[in-house]
Structures are given as C-alpha cells and as structure tokens.
Amino acid sequence: MAALQLEKQRGRYAALAIAAVVIVVGIPLWWKTTETYRAWLPFSEISELDSLQLQLSVDIEVVFSRGTLTPEQQKKFPLSHVNEKEHQVDAKTGLRYKYETRYRTATIMEEDALNQPTAAEADLSLHMLSESSCGSVVVYVIPESSTLLPEDVKVYVGQRRTALLRSPPFKTSWNLKEVLSNLDVEVEQVVSTMSFGHQDIVAALSNRVRMTKVTKESMADSMRAIKSSPGYEITFSLLNPDPKSHSLHWDIEGAVQSYIQPLLNKLAPIANFSVDSQILYYAVLGVNPRFDNSVSAYTLSADSLSHVINPVEARLGSNAASSNPVLNFLLYVPDAHHSPLFIRDHSKRKVPSNAFHSPRWGGIMVYNVNEMYGPEAERPVDININMAKVMGVFLAQLRLMLGVQHTHPPTGFVLQSPGSAGLADWELDRLLWSRSVENIATASTTITSLAQLLDQIGNIVINDNIAQQVSSAVTSLQSAVAELEAGNLAFALQYSREAILASERAFFDPSLLHLLYFPDDQKFAIYIPLFLPMCVPIVLSLLKIVSEAKKRRADKQAKSD
Amino acid sequence: FRFPSPIGHISTCPSLIGQCCKTHPGSFQEELVIRPLHSGDIYASFQFRTLWDTDFLQEGQKVSHYRLFPKSLGQVLSKFSVRELHISFTQGFWRTMQWGQPFIPSPPGAELWVWFHDTVSDVDGNWKELTNVLSGIFCASLNFIDLTNTVQPSASFKPLGLGNATDHRFLRYATLPREIVCTENLTPWKKLLPCGSKAGLAVLMKSEKLFHSSFHSQAVHIRPICQQCSSKAWELRQTLNVVFDLHTSGQGKKEWSLFKMFSRTLTEACPLASSSKVYVDITDNPEGELFELSPATPLLGQAVVLGDRRTYSVYDLSRAETFGQLRSFNLLLRWKGDSGDMLRPLLHAERYVAGFGLQTGEIHTVIYNNHPYRAFPVLLMDSVPWYLQLYIHTLTVTSKSRDNKPSYIHYQPAKDRHRPHLLEMLIQLPPHSMTEVTVQFERALLKWTEYTPDPNHGFYVGSSVVSALVPSMVAMRTNFTQDQPLFSSFVPVKEESSYFVRVYTEPLLVNLPTPDFSMPYNVICLTCTVVAVGYGSFYNLLTRTFQVDEPSPPLSKRLANLIRRMRGVPLLT
C-alpha cells in the first residue's frame, strides 16, 4: 500500500513538473516566437499633441516721429505693452495671439529717413537703418500734417516690414494711455494686414478643423493655394498644336531668370522649387472653340474651361524624378485655323489677360500669333514670343497658387507693389505664419492618426526606423509650437517642415503595409493538432491533483474534528 | 560567297550629301528602312534620332529646359547621373539564320543597360531607383530588376557614345526574359517622339498591326555623342523593328504595301524633322528581276552596313513630289520570282538545356563561325540566376572536337539570393566551325515564397550575349558624318576591316523542383499528430500509477456467474 502511495505521489510530481515546464518555458517561448515586433512610440506625447494649443507671438514696434506727441507724453517712453487674445476654434484646437507692442520715439536717423520726399524712399532708407526680424512689424507714426502720404491715405505699407501710419488727431490734454488706446485700433489693422488675421490662421488649420467659421473669401484663397509641401516643381509648357505653320521660339531660360527666379529666391525658406520647361507639339485643348461672328474670332466660354485641361494633362507627363506637387503653366498658341482665340468670362466679356488658372493645378494662357504674319507668309513662320507679357500673367498666377494672398486692404491703406523681387517682406511673413500653422496642423493630424491606427491594429509591425521618425516628428512639432510661442517665425517654419517630412515618411513607410494578419480560424487550425492533445492531459491531471488535495484537506479536517 | 556587284547607274544622291546641321539647339531625324527578307517576310525598321546640344558633362549645370528632347527622359538622365542608357522591349525571337542580322539586336523580353557617371557614389541605389522610374515611364515591370538579376559585365558592354569609360563598376546590365511587350509599352514610347504619332513616320505605328507580327522590338538608346567634336550632344535614338509575316497572312501572294503592313499610308513628314526618309533595300534586285517597286524613285543610296554594301531606293518625305497627286505615299512591292538562298550570317549562336531529371542539367551554347577562311574572337557573356548552381569546373569549350581554351575568362560566382552568376569568355572561333560551350549546373531548392505564381511553367534564364568584331567583306567607313543614314551609323566603327555584331541566343526555360504548395499545412498537421501521440504516451508513462491488477476471470466463468446471479444462486469465485 505504501509503495502504491509512493507511486501515486511520483505520478503527481511528474505531472506538476511537466505543467511547470510548459508554463515556464513553453508558453514564453511560443509567445516570444510568434509576437510581432512593435517598437516603442511616444503615445502620451502624441495624445498631448492631439489637443493643440497654438500661441502666435508678434513683435510690434510703434515708433513716434517728431511732432506727434507732446514732450510730456514722451517722457514715459520707452514703454511696452502685451495684448493677448484667445480663440477656441474647436474642442481640440485653441489659438492665442500675443501682441507684444513696444513704444518708443524715433531716433535722429529715422527722423532723417522720414523726411524723404516720398513714402517709397522713406521706406527704403528706414530699411537701410535697421533690419527688422522675420515676423515682426514696425509702425512709424507720422504727424497728421505730414506730406509723405497723399491726403486720403491713412496707412502706407512698404516693401519691407515697415508701415507708415498717419497719426489720428490727438488732443494735447490726453495722457499717454488715452493716446495709445486711441492708436490701438489702427495698429491692429496694420498688423492683421502685415502678419496674419484670424481668418487666415483658421483657414490654415483646415486640415484639423471643420471649416464652418471661415469667410468665403479666405476659404477660396486657401483652396486655390496648393498645399504645403517641402518642394514644388514648376513646369512651363509651350503648346504648339500646329508646328507646320508656326515655328515658335521662346526664351524661357532668360524669362525664368529675370521674372520667376527672384520670387523663388525670396521663397526659399518655405520650400525648394525647381523650374523646368518643355515644348509640346500637336498638343490640343480638349474643347473645340466656337467661332463668334461678332468679333470674328474663336472664343472659349468660361463654362467649357473645365474641359480644357484633361486631354492636355496626359501629354504633360509627371515629373519622373521627384514626387513633389507640380504647378503647370501652359502657354497655348492656337493653330492657324483657329486664330485668334479669346477666353470669355461668365459675363461674356473678353478676359484681358486671355488666361485662366485652375486651383492647385496651374494656369493656361492663350497667346494669339495670327497678327504677326500675313496670309502669304512662308510656312512655318518663325515667331518670337514676348516673354514679358507671358511671364507677367504667369507670375500673377504663381503668386495666387503659392498662397501669397491678395489681401484686400482696409480703406485708406496703400500697399506698395512688391517690385522686382515679386514679393514684399511682409507678404513673405504672412506666408510664413500661415504655412507654419498649416504644417503644424497637418503634421499633428498625420501623427495622431498614425498613432491611432497603430494602436488599434495590433498586428502591424512597427520597425525602429518608424519609431524614430515618429519621435523626431513629435520633437520637431513640439519645437515648432515652442518657437511660434517665442515669436521666432523662421525657426518655427523650419521645425514644422521637419515635422511634416518626418510624419509623412513614417505614415507612408512601406514596412507598415507588411501587416502580419492571420485569421483566427486559420490560427486555430494550425494550433489545435499540437496544442489540444498536449494540453488536455496536463489540464486534466492538474485538475485531478487539485481535487485530491482538496479531498485530503477535507479528510484531515474531519479527522481533527 | 557573293560580293556586292558594282552598280553603275547610281547617281550620288543629293539628299545624302551636304545639309549640315542647323544651328538651333537640337534636331530630329526620322527614317524607315524596309528590307524584304529571303524567307518572304518583311523587315521594317524605324529609327528616330533626337539630338540635344548641351554640355551635360559639366558639373553643377542644371539643364531643365526641353525642346525636342522629352522632358521625362532628360530628368531621369540628370537626376541619376546617367551617362548612357539602352533599353529594349522585344516580343518574339530574332531568327538570325532566316533573317540575317538586324540593324540593332535585342534579346527577347526587356533588356536594360546603363553606364553611370563616375561621380556616382551609390551606383546600386541609383540603379534601383532608376529601374523603378523607368518602369513607370514605359509601363513595364522593370521594377523587378534587383540585385539578383543585375550583373556588371567586364568587357561585353562598352559605352557606345563619347568617352572611354572602362571601369565596369559604373555599368549595370539586366534582362527580364519573361517580360511581355504590348500596347501599353508602345504608347509611352510613341509619346517620347516630338511629333508623337500625329505626323511623320510614326503615324504608321498602329498597335494592332505592329503586334500582329513575327517579331517586334522597340528600344530607346541614349548616349552622349560629339559632333565633329566641337560640341557635345545627347543623342536619343528610338528604334522600332518589326518583322511581318506577309507570306502566310497574305493568302500566299507575295506582295506587300505600306497600307497592307500598317493599314495607313504616309501623308507628310514630321514638320520638326530635319530629314525624313524611307529606304527600301534593293540590293538583291539590281535589275528589277526579283520584284517591282511602285512608285519608282530615281533616288538611290548606298550604305555600308553590317559588313556589306547595300543599295537602297530612297524616298524623301520632305519633298512634295514624293506624295504625288493623291497626296499620299503608299509603297507597293510585287515579287516576280523566287528569291534565292540567303547568305548564311557569318556569326550565329544558339543555346539549349540538356539533361534529365530535376537535379542536374547542362547548358549548351553553340556558336557558329561561317566565315570560310577567317578566324575571329568572340566575347560570350552569360548571366545565370543563382538558383541554377553552375559547376564551373565542368566548363568545356570545344571547336572541331578539340579543346579550345578561352584566352580570357571572367567568372563571378553567384551568391544565393543576392547576385547571379556572370561568366564572360573570349573565345577564338576557327574558320568555318562550330564551337560548343557546355557547363553543368544543379537546380537549387527555393523557399516556398520565392516561387513565381505559376512555378510549373518553369524559370527563364536570359539570353547569352555574343559580341564580336566580324571581318568585313567591304571596307567599313570609320568617319561619321551627318549624311549617313541612321541605320548604318549606330555602332561606332573603329577600323575598316571589321564590324561589330552582337548576337543574342534564345532564352532558356528551366524547370525547377516544385513542391506541392499545400504541403506546409500537411506537414504541420502530420508532425503535430506525431508529436502529440509521442508526447501522450510519454506523459502517460510518467504520470500514471501502475499496480498489479487481479487477472479477470475467464469468459466462461463470467457467463456462469451471470446466469447464477439471475437465478439467485451463490456466485462462483
């Protein structure tokens, strides 16, 4: 009997030992060999980014020139004042604008500059005196009686970051506070023209926020402008549908050098641009223009313009060597039998530039050459294209596409035209503000949706390089937000671009597609032949051991009772 | 042997002389050569040449304004620092023994070879990206080119253009013998032409006719050239070669016309082309006894091509009188008699797989030298995928049943799943001989994910390439001038006495041992069952307690007890 008991005990120990081996070695081994590799992601920081609180800080300098303030009022200078405004755009996005205004009187040199005969010259000499930092605004308040500005002009915005403001009539009895508060409205108008307005910023957030509170105009502006991207390809194409009659020559190298390149140099901090051009022969528009007897010309109506692009697009060809968005500018020279060709707008009037643009795609200009040769000219006729005329139109379209909005200035404002550079400094600043905000919004949306996706689907393999991209995107985003808060616009844009690059790279990484997905029924089909016969005896003998132990304890208790 | 008979009545063709290059940057030429073949087939070869004068070799200069040259290719050249690019897509196999040598040879499937600039640091990276971009441009599966089918031939593929790059680290060569060529490859190819398919010779390219042919090959060759060496230029040559089998499809009548072949006629030259010509090879028909051409042309041209002086009827499309009253040009050829036997091509090669079973095999490459008295060396290049494991010690080269030791062997063994075998040999071919190269191989077992979707079809092994300088019958022209027809000016000629020929053999189709693909699950089930049974008995042995059991009473006793119980009688013990 003792031997039998001993034998039973040995059997129990063996069953326990096997169960222990299975649990201690087998299960971890199985777990380790079948798990998917998932690198660590900063989920907590990403969820912080999900609710975005952006603070935009603008440095404003208000400089009073001689004759605007009484000496008493001047005594309290220099003085600074911080004004903050808060907007809650939606449940997860908040905006705070911080205007740091410093007031001072003009230096002697600045007084000299302001004594120039015209506003443009004053603007230039003020610029020579001091270089204002990116994103800041300097407002010079000039006396009401100043002749620098024409009678009805209240504010002059120059080519750089300075504006001249004709001071409203102050009463000498006012103290400084009253004077400044009187000036505040005007300064605010200047700032919203030269750096950003609330509507522009909300439009830039369109990737995060549902567009409800945006005006139609800034909506149209942001729809027209192409999305923020690290680089753009600009392609000029000359379409010559009739090489038999026209031999066209365009000096595109020179034209790009003198008209487009200055603007692109200016825009270098925003994105990399590459320019190329091509000539396409036998390329035709998708619509047959109608002959209009009243003007004895062919016309394209505004309704048919939407059908023009598609057939041409197939010929344009995408850029084989990069994946950046392409801006196409087409110069179409109608064939001899369909000339002249004019574009008409919705109210049936001839479009003076004879050009139109398609949002986020590019522009098309029709260039009629029928007047350049007589009917008996020898075919093909050599024709030189007037590039100044063409580039003027394309430059305007390019500015629209890039989102250099046509700000509609408030009444009494005069905006100096940007001149040969194609872009004023403050226009660039406006672009920087909206692009930084847009980049931050886009990158944060990308990163949060990626994190959400990875969190939801546990079978996706997360490699180390993805984790690295995600962390660098998060760090850059945080730095971008911090730089915006500190008012360093250039750095903010830089970081936001890095964030967008890293986030897109992580989001579109092909290794995320290698989803290790096995349906449950197949998994069971593989596991059951092995696991079922192995586990059933172990479980049964464990159950038996437990029940025996229970019984023994009950017996012992009964005995002791 | 027949030497070209001197032809007395040829006036020097005025259009072939003079007409120097225009000064504007870039020019475009187009031509079509039609050669009636002895087999009754028609060989039509289109060539389009776009020249782009630009000093591309200068570093840092970004060229981005395109006129005649296609922008998509130009961007590829500058982005990947390509020095020379040759790509061909071929459907069908060129039968050298029936058709003679083509103007520009190409192997079945897709072939791509690229020389990169020697400033490129990451050649493999550039190559990978380049193949992906090209596969997008030509709608082909070039993205399947990777390191496992790319080789760097040391001698067979020298640059054809300017510059004497010799470092084959910057060369990449790959073929996809299984690539199927169809309309979707032709459309992007036509798009690269300045006139598209709207005007000029390209209007003849209707895909339903072009692909209803015995052989179709389209290619793009880009190389830097030098015009009189004063200015450098990119040369883009687009060639399209078709062989029509008009004999069987034309109800046995031996006549053809442009309309019959292409279902189009020509109405104009491409207005951008500086020259636009149609050539018909009439060398075998000097007196008009074999066939009759209409409309007849007074223009005759001569060109030395592939070691032979050929005579051509030339039709210049840039002249209005070519098109006649109907304003349409339809060339008609009517055969009168039976053409004689074709001259055997001097160099010819073929290849096959021998052996049985699925374990080992032998690749035979047979090269023929049909020259009656001249021996010449050939370069044989073989690129064999890694899953055929070559035994290089079994390599034998025999000519006239005697061992023929190659004077140069470059062998790069394969690495499993990383790179293919590359075997290059310089073999001297004795006159009028057959040289056989054999090498044995063993078939590797692939991993089950490495098999193609239809593994029982077999695996393709690309063509061998035989490159040679073949002794020429006539003096080749060594100086290149503008007035030469395009088809005779592709391969640079270094010496007068020989000409360059490249011959591609057939691709091989090899069966590999192919498993039953439901096998993994069966194996899992079987092993699991075996393991479970073994484990179960082991477990029972370990955990069960064994005790001596009373032997059970025999059956008779049990039956008796049963009856006793029913009767209520005491049981037996």
From TrEMBL, chain A:
A single GO cellular-component term on record: GPI-anchor transamidase complex
Residues spanning the signal sequence: none
Compartments, record wording: Endoplasmic reticulum membrane
Pathway in which this enzyme or protein is active: Glycolipid biosynthesis; glycosylphosphatidylinositol-anchor biosynthesis
Domain of life assignment: Eukaryota
BP term (GO), one: GPI anchor biosynthetic process
Membrane-crossing residue ranges in chain numbering: 12-31, 524-543
Keyword Endoplasmic reticulum: yes
Major subcellular location class: endoplasmic reticulum
Membrane topology: Multi-pass membrane protein
Family per similarity comment: Belongs to the PIGS family.
Record's protein name: Phosphatidylinositol glycan anchor biosynthesis, class S
Organism: Cyprinus carpio carpio
Taxonomic path: Eukaryota, Metazoa, Chordata, Craniata, Vertebrata
Automatic annotation (TrEMBL), chain B:
GO BP annotations, alphabetical order: attachment of GPI anchor to protein
InterPro entries hit by this protein: PIG-T
Gene Ontology cellular component terms for the protein in this record: GPI-anchor transamidase complex
Pfam families, per database record: Gpi16
Identification of the protein by name: Phosphatidylinositol glycan anchor biosynthesis, class T
Annotated gene: LOC109080311
